[in-house]
Design goal:
The complex is a heterodimer of chains A (about 150) and B (about 375).
Chain A: H1 2-11, E1 18-24, E2 28-32, H2 39-44, H3 48-68, E3 71-78, E4 81-87, E5 98-105, H4 110-124, E6 133-139, E7 144-148
Parallel strand pairs in A: 1-7, 5-6
Antiparallel strand pairs in A: 1-2, 3-4, 4-5, 6-7
Helix pairs in contact in A: 1-3
Chain B: H1 2-24, H2 28-47, H3 58-72, H4 76-87, H5 93-112, E1 123-129, E2 133-134, E3 137-138, H6 140-161, H7 170-175, E4 183-185, E5 193-199, H8 209-228, H9 231-237, H10 241-254, E6 263-270, E7 273-279, E8 302-313, E9 319-324, E10 330-335, H11 340-344, E11 351-359, E12 362-370
Antiparallel strand pairs in B: 1-5, 1-6, 2-3, 4-5, 6-7, 8-9, 8-11, 9-10, 11-12
């Protein structure tokens, strides 16, 4: 995930230490550090959609730890991928944990980010069953992270 | 119980990750082994909570995860059983919905089954299911569009296997090979809604049976790649860019929309064993068509244009269309080879949504659909 995020950030002309603008749950700026990106890493992550998505998970997971004190507890299998659950590292498996819905955008303006937030919020079906959910949209060109709790 | 369940679950997720990685590399047998181990560990973890209906959402999440892994390794009956067990507790609403989705997917196998029908080697069953489909009856537009797509896919696959160069005009291309890839349809039957396609003449000629059979096998293999393999595998299978762009675009029109149509499947009979392939999920946009043909879909370079398709030009070096929006604004979009006749032409004069790839001021079509779809 970290490698994928590095490839996406590098692709958008960013260097390690670039500032990530965080909006939503908390408004702040955080420095992003990532390994140098070479041809091998680019080749490994040449599937743009996968790199964008996996990198977004990496950034979102670190971010939630930083701003909300939430740690990745575990994953579960869902559809064709994984579902991530975050929380404090205590209690049984998924009890009192929050779900994390993440989406990555390689390069897009605020309208695209907002649209994606709406899509993901709708998809997450906020609060119907009482499960806390975070939606995190990571945009690499700014770079920007929009984290909301629908 | 919790510690044991947590250990089993952790092990299941490690196996599942290994499986996903192996699948990505095209190592299908290795992936299947990992999925099996992941399923067994997750099932055992879930069963520990079977009698603890108050342990939610842990109980239902584990059952959903185990049922999904059962589907991943082809254990449809187990998936059905585990999804039902998950639903029998006090699952939160969102997890209940996901368990019902798994249950629905597990039951699709039943729809794809031939149910005792015999198909000869040049035939395959086409099955469709979803909200637009009842038992033996279906929305005509939904079915006819997909039947049309399947017919084109059969004929294009046949021409490709005979090493014919891609020609936009399917009829002209077909004349060169006679009626070898002519397509016939049976009457529909309830399953939820199924038809039999036959390739070739109503009376079979023994000499070309193998060739016709290979068309069906090839088409199903390519669909399996779209569902489980990666772009590189499809590029290796269909090296010709025009044929590949055409196949991907037709498959995209064939695939379920998630509501009206939730399943599109093909079934054939090989050595007495049913071979089934189901298009049940959206495949990624990027990678299947190379640069130059069209897309690499990052958000910066991807634009969506809506308008009425009022102009199409196939006489120049590069095919081009123009869309006119409600305000009269005209957008010109280049069309990659392989897409004009089969994909774009049927949409003439309709209001369409085009997903296009922008390079400089030039737009190249990646996907086109009627606005109501």
């Amino acid at each position: 995930m970290a490698e994928a995020a590095g490839v996406c950030l590098d692709d958008q002309g960013h260097a390690p230490g670039c500032l990530l603008t965080v909006e939503g749950c908390r408004d702040c700026h955080l420095a992003l550090f990532f390994c140098s990106v070479d041809a091998t890493r680019r080749a490994t992550w040449n599937d743009q959609e996968e790199a964008t998505e996996q990198g977004a998970y990496g950034v979102a997971l670190l971010l939630l730890h930083e701003i909300e004190g939430q740690t990745v507890i575990t994953r579960s299998r869902k559809g064709t991928g994984f579902d991530y659950w975050v929380g404090k590292n205590e209690g049984a498996l998924f009890q009192q944990k929050a779900r994390l819905e993440v989406s990555g955008i390689r390069r897009g303006g605020s309208a695209i980010v907002e649209r994606r937030v709406r899509q993901k919020t709708q998809q997450a079906g906020p609060g119907r069953g009482g499960i806390q959910t975070y939606v995190a949209i990571i945009e690499y060109s700014a770079p920007l992270a929009r984290v909301v709790e629908p | 119980m919790t510690a044991k369940a947590a250990a089993l679950h952790a092990s299941a997720m490690e196996f599942a990750e290994d499986a996903a990685h192996a699948a990505k590399l095209g190592e299908t047998e290795r992936a299947a082994r990992f999925y099996k181990s992941a399923f067994e560990a997750e099932r055992d973890a879930a069963i520990l909570f079977a009698e603890s209906p108050s342990e939610e959402p842990t109980r239902s999440v584990l059952f959903r995860s185990a049922a999904t892994l059962a589907l991943d390794c082809g254990e449809h009956r187990e998936a059905e059983r585990l999804a039902c067990l998950g639903l029998s507790g006090g699952a939160p609403a969102e997890i209940s919905d996901e368990l019902r989705d798994v249950l629905e997917r597990a039951q699709w196998e039943k729809h794809l089954s031939l149910r005792g029908m015999t198909l000869d080697p040049t035939e395959f069953q086409f099955t469709i299911d979803g909200d637009a489909v009842g038992l033996g009856i279906a929305n005509a537009d939904v079915v006819t569009r997909r039947v049309e797509c399947t017919k084109k896919m059969v004929r294009r696959t046949g021409h490709r296997l005979q090493n014919l160069p891609f020609q936009d005009d399917l009829r002209a291309s077909g004349k060169k090979v006679g009626d070898d890839v002519e397509v016939f349809l049976s009457v529909p039957r309830a399953a939820s809604f199924a038809l039999t396609f036959r390739i070739g003449q109503p009376q079979l000629e023994f000499t070309s049976v193998e060739r016709r059979r290979s068309v069906i096998d090839e088409m199903m293999s390519c669909m399996e790649i779209l569902q489980g393999g990666g772009p590189a595998e499809l590029v290796a299978r269909i090296p010709d860019e025009a044929y590949r762009a055409n196949f991907v675009a037709l498959a995209r029109q064939l695939q379920p929309d998630g509501t009206q149509v939730k399943l599109v499947g093909l079934t054939c009979l090989r050595n007495g064993v049913e071979r089934r392939v189901q298009l049940s999920r959206q495949f990624p946009r990027s990678g299947y068509i190379t640069e130059g043909q069209s897309v690499g879909h990052d958000a910066a370079q991807t634009v969506t244009v809506v308008g009425r398709l009022k102009y199409a030009d196939s006489t120049s070096k590069k095919d081009k269309i123009r869309l006119v929006d409600d305000g009269g604004k005209v957008s010109s979009i280049y069309v990659p080879k392989g897409m004009m006749a089969d994909i774009v032409r049927p949409l003439w004069d309709d209001t369409v949504t085009v997903v296009a790839h922008r390079r400089g001021t030039q737009l190249t079509l990646s996907e086109i659909m009627r606005r109501d779809e």
